[in-house]
Design goal:
By secondary structure, the protein is mostly beta strands. Helix content is about 10%, strand content about 30%. The protein is built from two helices and seven strands, in the order ββαββββαβ. The strands form two sheets. Strands 1-2-7-4-5 form a five-stranded antiparallel sheet, with no helix packed on it. It has a two-stranded antiparallel sheet with strand order 3-6. A hairpin with a 2-residue loop joins strand 1 and strand 2. It is elongated, with a radius of gyration of 13 Å.
């Protein structure tokens, strides 16, 4: 994942790599809790400014209140690529 910021906005792009090691079946899609388990994206040093919205799936991604992290299982819940926008 990487993040870019401009003015008052930020975008985070997340794309998995080395997928063959994550899935046990060749036809398995690398999405959801079973694949990503407790993997997290940590917030940037200045934190998120609000919630996160996945532009690829048009869904909100919950931010953990204790740590500010987001679960990768939530980010890749329906599609294994994410473009997250701060809201």
């Amino acid at each position: 994942a990487f993040s870019r910021r401009t003015g008052s906005g930020r975008v985070i792009v997340a794309v998995p790599r080395l997928l063959a090691t994550l899935t046990s079946q060749m036809n398995e899609t690398p999405i959801g809790e079973r694949v990503w388990q407790d993997t997290q994206l940590l917030p940037p040093a200045d934190g998120w400014r609000g919630g996160l919205h996945n532009a690829m799936t048009d869904r909100c991604v919950p931010v953990q209140p204790e740590t500010g992290a987001v679960r990768v299982a939530d980010v890749f819940d329906r599609f294994p690529v994410a473009v997250l926008l701060e809201s």
